[in-house]
Amino acid sequence: MSDRGYSLVELLVSVAILLVVFGSVCQLASPAHATALVQAELQDMQQKARVLADSIAFDLRLAGANTTTGSLGGPLSTSFAAILPAACCGSMADPPGAERSDRLTILYTPRGSPLAQTTTEVAPGSSALALAPGPACPSAPLCGFVNGDLLLISDGSGRYDVFRLDLTSGAPLLDIVTAPFTTSYGSGATVARVVVRTYVRDAGSDQVFLVNGDDRPEPLVDRVVDLRFEYSDGSGAALAGRLGDGPWTGAGGSMYDDDVRRVRRVHVTYTIRSGLRGAGALSIADLTSGFDVALRNVTGGS
Amino acid sequence: MALLAVLLTSVLLLAYGLATSFMAKTELEIASADRSGREAAYAADGALQAAVAELAGGWDGVLDGSRTSVFQDATLSPAIDGTGRRMDLGARTVVLQAASDSAPTGTDRVQWRLFAWGPASMLLSPPASVGPFYLAVWFADDSGDGDGVPSADANGIVIVHAEAYGAGGLLRAVECVVSRTPTTGSRPMLLSWRELRPI
Questions:
Q1: How far apart are CA B50 and CA B42, in angstroms?
Q2: How close does chain B come to A204, measured CA to CA in Å?
Q3: Contact B192 A66 (CB under 8 A)
Q4: pLDDT, one tens digit for every residue, chain A (302 residues)
Q5: Gap between the Cα atoms of A8 and B99, Å rounded
Q6: What crossing angle do the helices spanning B2-54 and A8-62 adopt, rounded to 10°?
Q7: B93, burial (CB in 10 Å: exposed 0-12, middle 13-18, buried 19+)
Q8: Which of A68, A76, A131, A146 to mutate to test the interface with B (most CBs of B within 10 A)?
């Protein structure tokens, strides 16, 4: 180098060497970058799988659980079906008696719900509710039920309906969720709070929605490209195709196939797809998994 | 120039390495907590089933405290993990009671009574196959009993509540309702079972 500074040739050579060096550095860093992206994506897929499996398994174990109140207790499954192979209520409801392998509705009473009995007939169109005082009815006249409570009425014959309690007019009115309401319940029918949880996979968005009662569907997990529910009875025999062909119990919006009450075990299969799928070298295979849940509160029969 | 390149490469690779390592550690911790939670729920259910099995001959004296379980630890404030953290089962009973009292579900008051407690290794065998959980079981008469006496059962139905505690504040609880069976000496009939989110 002289006092005149760098020559153009020297600068060009320097820039070329720098480009080669930085290019090499980027080449070295690229696999590390890809590894970091893939790790984060795998972690996200695992977390989605955990949330989906935990939520469904928790609800399935509770299917048919009755109140801890006591005297009128016992599994709900002795009165009607605690699970349904379809969406029962709300904007995503399936036709009564439908059988779908990608939808599941689970019913159970929340811990500590009052358990009351009707004193008068509840008929379609009457939509009024009168309850009898009793040991499992802590306070008259509504046994502790409050406005907006999701309640279930059943007469032990297998028929049931779900309704919301509407006290806005001052009188207890029934806002039927399992519409159309076509069944009458005589005096002595059981009324309790109920949790109705419906899992629905939307094929368009690949999202699994959770519907509480007739509330708006809430997205639970996305990128679920497959969700299937398979049912078997106490002997392990598959019940696919037999849960929507009759004979039927109930009527209107709460009608269901008699065979639904034979379900003792549910096998859940799901597939989570990576957001990096199709991204060349970063493409990650689908995560497919499954689990079985034996229905703890469903007893009797085969 | 070579030194600069090496330094630059090292810094980049170190950053990626640290990020990946941190993510892997987080994932391992989440998976471990998930597994521990499931194991604790099964342990609590085991304690529940063991306590219910003890009632095969009836539950006279259980609700008034005159009869206790064979599964009882020497202390009511046991250390439940390696950190020395202690569980106050008396205080836990108060919490359970407060939760029940705040939402009455029948004419009778639900009154919880601690029945069995101890490390899981004491209850289940072989001990080596059981996680380091501490278990406790409570009994109460159901609120729909109708006799107005929480310490006596009139309708043949009681509630059983079991909890499992583990390291890091882990708590899982299950609860069931059982009724007497007409056959003397037979196991009570399960009316309802549920896993609870921690109270």
A1: 12
A2: 30
A3: yes
A4: 557 788 888 888 888 888 887 787 777 777 777 777 888 889 899 999 999 999 999 999 999 888 766 555 566 777 788 899 999 888 888 998 999 999 999 999 888 788 888 888 888 877 778 888 777 777 777 888 889 999 999 888 888 899 898 888 877 788 888 888 888 888 888 888 999 999 999 999 999 999 998 888 999 999 999 999 999 998 999 999 999 998 999 888 889 999 999 999 999 999 999 987 666 667 788 999 999 999 988 864 33
A5: 83
A6: 10
A7: middle
A8: A68
User: Residue B2: what are its φ and ψ, rounded to 5°?
Assistant: -65, -40
- DSSP readout, B137-162? EEEEE-TT--SS-TTS-SSSEEEEEE
**Spatial separation of the C-alpha atoms in residues A144 and B143, rounded to whole Å:** 13
Amino acid code (one letter) for B137: V
Q: Bridge-partner residues for A103, per DSSP?
A: A200
Distance (Å, rounded) from C-alpha A259 to C-alpha B89? 46
Selecting from B100, B103, B146 the residue whose C-beta is nearest the C-beta of A135 gives B146
Give Cα separations from B68 to A31, A101, B115 (angstroms): 64, 48, 6
Could you give the angle at the alpha carbon of B16 between the alpha carbons of B13 and B18, nearest 5°? 105
What is the rounded (10 degree) CA torsion for B155, B158, B159, B163?
A: 180
Q: Which of residues 93-122 of A touch B (CB under 8 A)?
A: 108, 111-115
DSSP secondary-structure letter at B51?
Answer: H
Asked if A36 and B23 come within 8 Å (Cβ–Cβ), the reply is yes
Per domain, the residue ranges of chain B are 35-196
User: Model confidence over B164-173: pLDDT tens digits?
Assistant: 998 888 999 9
Q: Which of residues 10-69 of B touch A (CB under 8 A)?
A: 12-13, 16-17, 19-20, 23-24, 26-27, 30-31, 34
User: Which amino acid type is present at position A161?
Assistant: D
pTM, two decimal places: 0.86
Residue A205 carries which DSSP code? Answer: T
Instruction: Please give the single-letter amino acid code of residue A235.
Output: S
Angle at A266 between CA B191 and CA B179, to 5 degrees: 5
- Percent pLDDT > 90 in chain B is 29
Smallest CA-to-CA distance from A67 within A27, A30, A111, A37 is with: A111
